[in-house]
Amino acid sequence: MLLARVVWLALPVILAGATHIAVIRRDLWRGLARLPLDAGATFRGRRVLGDHKTVRGAVVMAGATVAFAGGQAALTACWPALRALAFDHETHWLPWGLLLGTGYVAGELPNSFLKRQLDVGPGAAAPGLLAPLFWLADQLDSLVGVLCLMALVWVPPLAVAAALMLLTLAVHPAMALVMVALGLKRRVG
């Protein structure tokens, strides 16, 4: 039952990620895709985040997560049996979805900043001994952001956080594999 509840908890973000892949694939909102979140800013002569962290990505992830959280709320209202899947965080779906989606986006930024400062290109593997560390950070950075913002309204039990970590370690590479298969990304890790 814990796994089903954790999947239900993560579902708005997972579906938002799939939506983001579809938006990239169909090249929707090109103007927003050309707007990097760092607006081209540099630190120590290197880009702060790079061109791959875009306004389009942030808007799609946050907006789609809100929409899917609203969908979950509607489904739960129609089928009360689904309430058994929901954790009791007592937060309206709109701010809940916004916290999850914004947390996802915000969680990726420190890792991107660090990689740019170490001259690791967007989508490239870190060199040498840093490679496994950055691979793990690439998989879990967004979860850390989600957990941090989620904690503003609800702190999940340790078992839930651990299950979310395991789910993320399965879903994140699977989504990257889909992106590689669609030609949207060069490599999975």
Can I get a quick summary?
The protein has 189 residues and is mainly alpha-helical. The protein has six helices and two strands.
Question: What's the layout of helices and strands?
Answer:
Layout: H1 2-25, H2 30-33, E1 42-43, E2 46-47, H3 55-78, H4 93-117, H5 130-150, H6 158-181
Antiparallel strand pairs: 1-2
Order of helices and strands: HHEEHHHH
State which percent range the strand residues make up: under 5%
* Helix coverage percent: 55-70%
Task: State the oligomer.
Answer: single chain
Q: Kindly state the number of beta strands.
A: 2
- pLDDT under 50 segments (min length 5)? none
Overall average residue pLDDT = 94
Strands of the widest sheet, in order across it, are 1-2
Total separate domains: 1
How large is the radius of gyration? 17 Å
Features:
single chain, 189 residues, mainly alpha, two-stranded antiparallel sheet, globular
Task: Give an overview in words.
The structure is a single chain. This protein has 189 residues and is mostly helical. It has one domain. The protein has 6 helices and 2 strands; from the N terminus they run H-H-E-E-H-H-H-H. It has helices at residues 2-25, 30-33, 55-78, 93-117, 130-150, 158-181, and strands at 42-43, 46-47. It is globular, with a radius of gyration of 17 Å. The model has no long low-confidence stretch (mean pLDDT 94).
